[in-house]
Design brief:
heterodimer; A: mainly alpha; 2 strands; B: mainly alpha; ABC transporter involved in vitamin B12 uptake, BtuC; Diphtheria Toxin Repressor, domain 2; 18 helices
Chain lengths: 284, 429
């Protein structure tokens, strides 16, 4: 129990690092709900990939999800700019449509498919230690999800690390970025691709809805108390990790679902930090 | 197939009646409150509330221990209300932006809900089975009682919105003004929020937590493209909501394995898309046509004007010229295109003579007026803005197409019936 608990905490902490970084960027672009939109819209992509390849092979699912993730953000942008619809309405319109298409696909191919709405909505962290990755020679390398999320965390960290300056400029002053020859749009789409990738990976472990808890709540908590981009990013990851640990402990103690408990703890952390910062501000 | 369609349309089976009527009433009340949410730039409130009701349902269940629908709905209502209160507070009292406030509230409430749900499942209480189905919704399972509930809700919403129409309208467009003229803004907001939460809570039963947001947003967005008047917009939104509900129920009846909720969403999406493209005036097709017509008009007017001034300079006779000649004369290749000349012919402003075109008397009059306003404007710029004569032409080139007869009259008056423009050419009257 102890070992598997450790695997769960480590894996969800890795997820928290990826989402913590991306969540900050989403928040700064005022598109926190884009994360929610992407996490719901990848559903038809996953179903299609599953139908076409006939297996739950991760790569096909990732490709399907990325196509849909980028697709939905293009769709939102198109509706917003071409039809001049306000941003939140464009988001709501797009992701509900794509999610509906996903549900319809599932119900059409219900016999051939071993996906159901439950697994899409919830996901289960407790299964992480059960799905092991073994080499052909039989060597046990630990949970598959751990390796996927480790790779993603490395990708995301290197993205933010390598493009730190570019991101900073293109988020805080897109016009200046454009003027100096950086392409804020390109960075935006790289970010969208990464969000889709991360969301799919998160999908299997925490489900479609609670991804948003990982993406936004730790970032929002960090946002309350940080004044610099690097501290914002760092604190966001930190809050995600503490929420993962706290959530696991809460779930272990109470017998509830881990993902739900993590989202709850993240929310409680946010509330506590909010109250403390309010008190500190009123004293100052 | 056809017998099924006829059976559906004639409402012969009571089950069809319940599902169709339930979906329609649900669509109407959601569209109504959704329109106000959309106008108040809170389109995603539906998504937030729908996810946030879950802990309310779970706590209500934990309190009473059975699946008593009214009590569960009450719990859902309270939780949904609290989530909106939290979002509102976060937006106004902290530096958290609206999008993040929604996301934080949504995920925390839903997280708590899922957490409680699993705890309930582990208690082994047999009564809990199917509690989690609340998340997915199922319109096909609507019963007679639900339909009465939806009908009552829809009527209630319509009546309240018509009573407080003026107040809600002002609240949506200019909250500050509503406060300043002494409207009980807080109470009105409470009322509007309550109506919204009730509509969503009922919507979830048929649509599920994810898709219910569409019921609020899609009709409002689509309706916004059809009219400029709030009253009309509400009527259109309700009709679209009802239509979406009807189509969704229809499809899920034809293919019984199909859940109706997603089909309602798909139907609403395509109605919205059709509105974006095809709506008169605001749709992109209408706007595209408008732009194209303008461009064509400018093209035609330029040609008329060029022919007129060529005649004036004695370069051509009897207002007759070939497109190639005109293009050469003005040093503008685009004038070789033959379509604008054809359009002039169709409008009886010119007639074709071999490869050349001649202006009719109507065409000459039109051309004369274009030249007149062009030169009047040049004179106006030179006179009042003290621009040198060689700087006024470009500006007049673009403004001449939008000067109305009224402005023309004023210009003549202002410039005191001038006879020549800054270049020394006669202004034709």
């Amino acid at each position: 129990m102890l070992i598997s608990g450790l695997w769960i905490i480590v894996t969800s902490s890795l997820l928290a690092i990826s989402t913590g970084l991306l969540g900050c960027l989403l928040m700064l672009r005022r598109s926190a709900m884009l994360g929610d939109a992407i996490s719901h819209s990848v559903l038809p992509g996953i179903v299609m990939a599953y139908l076409l390849t006939g297996q739950k092979s991760s790569i096909a699912l990732f490709v399907g999800a990325i196509i849909l993730g980028v697709g939905v953000s293009l769709m939102i942008e198109f509706i917003q700019k071409r039809f001049s619809v306000q941003n939140d309405a464009a988001i709501g319109l797009s992701f509900t449509f794509l999610f509906a298409v996903g549900v319809i696909l599932i119900s059409i191919f219900a016999q051939d498919i071993d996906l159901d709405q439950d697994c899409v909505i919830y996901g289960e962290l407790a299964y992480i230690p059960l799905d092991l990755w073994t080499t052909p020679t039989g060597l046990n390398l630990g949970p598959r999800a751990f390796w996927i999320l480790l790779a993603l965390a490395i990708i995301n960290i290197s993205f933010v690390g390598l493009a730190y300056k570019e991101l900073q400029v293109s988020i805080f002053d897109p016009l200046f970025a454009q003027a100096t020859g950086l392409h804020p749009q390109v960075w935006h789409y790289v970010q969208v691709v990464l969000v889709s990738l991360t969301v799919v990976a998160a999908f299997e472990v925490v489900g479609a809805i609670l991804v948003i808890a990982f993406l936004v709540t730790p970032a929002a908590t960090a946002y309350l108390i940080s004044h610099r981009l690097w501290s914002f990013l760092g604190l966001s990851c930190l809050w995600g990790i503490t929420a993962s640990i706290g959530g696991y402990l809460l779930a272990w103690w109470s017998g509830g679902t881990i993902a739900g408990a993590i989202a709850l703890i993240a929310g409680i952390q946010f509330l506590i930090v909010l109250i403390i910062s309010k008190i500190a501000k009123s004293k100052a | 197939m056809w017998s099924a369609v006829i059976e559906f349309i004639t409402f012969r089976e009571p089950n069809i009646r319940f599902v169709v009527l339930g979906s329609i009433f649900m669509g109407i009340s959601a569209a109504l409150v959704g329109s106000f949410a959309y106008l108040r730039k809170q389109a995603l409130v539906g998504d937030t509330v729908s996810h946030s009701v879950l802990p309310g349902i779970c706590i209500a269940f934990l309190c009473i221990g059975t699946k008593n629908t009214p009590i569960l709905l009450l719990g859902a209502f309270i939780a949904g209300w609290l989530s909106l209160l939290a979002v509102d507070w976060l937006i106004h009292q902290t530096k958290i932006k609206p999008d993040s406030a929604n996301a934080v509230a949504l995920s925390t409430f839903f997280g708590l809900g899922v957490f409680l749900l699993t705890i309930i499942q582990h208690t082994g209480n047999a009564a809990q089975t199917g509690l989690d189905k609340f998340i997915f919704g199922n319109a096909a399972a609507l019963l007679k009682n639900d339909v009465w509930l939806f009908l009552g809700l829809a009527l209630c919403t319509i009546v309240l919105v018509s009573i407080f129409f003026k107040h809600f309208a002002l609240l949506s467009f200019d909250r500050q003004f509503a406060v300043s003229i002494g409207y009980p803004v807080k109470a009105l907001e409470v009322l509007l929020t309550s109506l919204t939460v009730i509509a969503i809570v009922c919507g979830i039963q048929a649509m599920g937590v994810v898709l219910v947001a569409s019921l609020l947003i899609a009709p409002a967005v689509a309706a916004r493209f059809w009219c400029y008047n709030l009253k009309k917009m509400l009527v259109v939104a309700c009709s679209i909501g009802a239509l979406g509900g009807y189509v969704g129920a229809f499809i899920s009846y034809l293919a019984p394995a199909m859940p109706s909720g997603p089909w309602i969403v798909v139907a609403l999406f395509f109605i919205a898309l059709a509105s974006f493209i095809g709506a008169p005036q605001k749709g992109i097709w209408a706007r595209f046509r408008l732009g194209q017509n303008n461009k064509r008009r400018v093209q035609e007017e330029n040609i008329l004007k060029y022919i007129y001034s060529a005649q004036e300079d004695g370069l051509i006779k009897e207002y007759t010229i070939t497109p190639q000649c005109l293009a050469e004369l003005r040093n503008n290749k685009t004038l070789e295109a033959i379509e604008p000349y054809k359009r002039l012919c169709r409008k009886n402003l010119a007639i074709q003579k071999g490869s050349a075109y001649q202006l009719t008397s109507k065409g000459i009059e039109y051309a004369k007026r274009m030249v007149k306003v062009h030169r009047l404007w040049e004179l106006y710029l030179a006179h009042y803005l003290h621009l040198p004569p060689d700087h006024v032409h470009e500006d007049a080139e673009s403004i001449e197409h939008i000067i109305t007869p009224e402005i023309e009259k004023q210009l003549i008056q202002l410039l005191d019936n001038p006879s020549t423009d800054p270049h020394g050419k006669d202004i034709p009257y």
